[in-house]
Design brief:
Number of helices: 19
Helix content: 25-40%
Radius of gyration: 23 Å
Keywords: Flavoprotein, Oxidoreductase
Shape: globular
Protein name: FAD-binding dehydrogenase
Structural class: alpha+beta
Organism: Solibacillus palustris
Pfam family, one: FAD_binding_2
Oligomer: single chain
Amino acid sequence: MRYDVIVVGAGIAGLVAACELIDANKKVLLVDQEPENSIGGQAFWSFGGLFLVDSPEQRRLGIKDSKALAWQDWIGTAGFDRLEDEDVLAYEWAKAYVDFAAGEKYSWLQSKGIRFFPVVGWAERGGSLAGGHGNSVPRFHIVWGTGPGLVEPFSNQVLQAVSEGKIDYKPRHQVTELITIDGEVSGIRGNILEAATIARGEESSRVVIDHFEYHADAVVVASGGIGANIELVKKNWPARLGTPPENMVSGVPAYVDGKMLEITEQIGGRIVNRDRMWHYTEGLKNWNPIWQNHGIRILPGPSSMWFDAVGNRFTAPNFPGFDTLSTLEAIQKTGYDYSWFILTEKIIEKEFALSGSEQNSDLTNKSIKEVLKRVLPGPPAAVQAFKDNGEDFVVADNLKDLVMGMNELVGSELLDFMHIKEQILARDREIENKFSKDAQITAIHGARNYIGDKLIRAAKPHKLLDSKAGPLIAVRLNILTRKTLGGLQTNLNGQVLNEYGDPISGLFAAGEVSGFGGGGVHGYRSLEGTFLGGCLYTGLQVGKFLSK
C-alpha cells in the first residue's frame, strides 16, 4: 500500500503531525511498536508542564514577561557554541520556538480544549547573572489534566479518524528499515510483533509474528530519544560532566531505546550534538515501579540543604530547582553517583512535588477538591507514600540519628555528624534575619516575593534544627535519565539533513529524535516545559509543511 505520509511513533510529536495531516485530508499511516494503550508515549507520563511567555496566567499573578526576556533567557541557557555547524539550525529553531511560545502557542492549545492550573511554576531559576542560565520569571504552566490532558485532544482526533477510515493506525509495528530508492526515502519495513495485553508503560514483548512493508511520499520519524538505553547514555556521556554514573534510574519506559536514530543514520541522516543530554539529579527509586528501574523525579522548592555523598554542601548555583546541569556536573565530579537533601517536615509538606501524571492524581483527574487538599498540613499523598515506603528516605527526630541512618542506607561511614551539623548550624544562624550573605537563603526570600511560590512552593524560612519544624528528613538523590538534547539535524520544515547539509528527500523528523528541532534546540540546557513544547511545535511544523 502507498500513503501520502507515514508517521513512525505515536507519541505527542507524531500525534500532532498526524492531526495536521488528517485536517488536510492526506492519506496517512501511523505506526508504533507498542500496543494501542501506549498512544501518547512519554507525554502521557509527564507532569504536563509547558513553557509559555506572557500568558494570561502569568499576568494574573503579576509576572511581567516578554519575548525579549524569554529570548535572553534561552540564549543565556543554551550556550550555543557550534553555530557554524551543529548548532546552525538549532539556533533558528530556537528563535522560531520562542516566537511560538510568546505568540500562537497559547491560543492554539486553547483551541484544542487545553487549560492550565492557575499557579505558574518557576523551574530552572538559574542563579547566575541576568544574561546567564535560567528563567528570569515563572513560565512553567501545568496542563489541567497533566500529561494525559495534553495527549487527549490529539489522540482522540487520531482515533476518531481511524474509526472513520481517514487514517490507518498500526500498533505493534516495529520499524527496522527505512526504504530508499536513488537516495530518496520511500517507505518503511519492519516486524509485526505479537499482541501484548500489558498495562501502559510496562515492557512489551519483542516476539515477531510477521513482517510488513509500506510506501509513502514522505516518512516522519517521531520515535523519541535514548533515555531508557542506559548503555547508550553512558556511551554518549560528555567528559565535561565527569565520568558516567555507575548507577542511574530510568525516567522513561523501556521503549525509549534510540533505535530509530540508528536506523535513520544508516541511510544517511545526520545526528548532531550527541554529547548533549538532560538528566535529573533528584531521582528517587520508585517504590511502586511500572517499568524496570523506574525512577521518579522530585520537583523541589528552594529550601532543602543539598549535600554531596561525603557531606559537603553544594554552592551556588547548585541549589534545589536552580541549575540542573551545573549540579549534575558537580555531583559527578565528586566521584559518587548520588547526593543528599536534608530538610524538615515543614519543608517537605510545602516544597516537594513529584514528576509524572500518575504521581499527581488530583491534577491528572482534574479534581479541584483534591487539589485544595495540598494546602493542608502534611505532604501530598504521593510524597507521603514515598516517605513511608521509598528506600531513599531517612527520617529521624535528631540530626545524629539522621546521619547514622544515612550512612546505614548506603553502607558506609562517609558522612561525619559534626561536619554536617556545623554546616546546618551556620545556615540556621543566617535565618535570624530577612537578609543574608547565604545565597540560598537570599534566594528563598526572593522566591517568596512571588505569590505563587509563597502560596504553594516555598516554605516559610525556619531553622532546620528547630524541633517544632521536625522531624528531620534525608533523601538520597539518584541520577535519573530523561532527555536527549541532540538528534537528527533538521531544517525549519523538519526535513532531515545528510552529512553535507542537504535535505534527504522524503525524510522528516519531529520531537526528541530531532533534538526537539534542528538537532538540539536547547543547546546545553533546558528552561523546562520545553520538551513537551518542542514535541508539539516540531510535530506542528512538519505536519503543516506536509499538508501543503
